[in-house]
Design goal:
Rossmann-like_a/b/a_fold; alpha/beta; binds adenosine monophosphate; 4 helices; about 150 residues; globular; five-stranded parallel β-sheet; UspA; cytoplasm; Universal_stress_UspA; about 40% helix
Length: about 150
């Protein structure tokens, strides 16, 4: 079995995210692998059943959120000693973007939390579940406490 060469940490900046980050860092150190971090800024809702029409996409708000996300990512990158070019931000659906970025960057291990924002009541959150089903490489789901 070959050692992992490129590990991707999927960071949602939610509670217990440090445990996921610490596990990814530990694995990268053990395997002497490159570590990249990806945060996906989820698309803002475009429709609202209450209005029955499309809500205009707010570019200003997205740009502000992107700025805030980049700041959080830079701090995490600094803590984990991950260089800027390996701190990635994408816009879209987390599970799809995590898998796409992993494939494009020849990642051989993805590290996610068992649940985060979307999966508090679930054994496995929807992102972790979606990544596990779609990924073409290994996936580690770090078990996180429910509270
Ligand atoms: P969830 O499906 O929201 O319960 O999240 C499970 C795990 O998926 C989290 O612990 C993260 O590792 C990853 N994840 C969820 N949302 C994002 C996101 N927006 N960007 C990057 N990773 C994410």
């Amino acid at each position: 079995m070959e050692n992992y060469k490129h590990i991707l940490l999927a960071a949602d900046f939610f509670s217990h995210g440090e445990a996921v980050a610490a596990r990814a860092k530990d694995l990268a150190d053990k395997y002497q692998a490159k570590l990249s971090i990806l945060h996906v800024l989820e698309s803002l809702p475009l429709t609202d059943p209450a209005y029955g029409s499309v809500v205009p996409y707010d570019m200003d708000l997205t740009a502000e959120m992107m700025k805030a996300a980049k700041k959080r990512l830079a701090k995490l990158g600094e803590d984990l000693k991950v260089p800027e070019q390996s701190q990635l931000i994408e816009l879209g659906s987390p599970k799809l973007e995590i898998v796409r970025i992993a494939q494009e960057n020849k990642v051989d291990l993805i590290v996610v939390g068992s649940h985060g924002r979307h999966g508090l009541a679930l054994l496995l959150g929807s992102t972790a579940n979606g990544v596990l089903h779609r990924a073409t490489c290994d996936v580690v789901a770090v078990r996180l406490p429910e509270s």
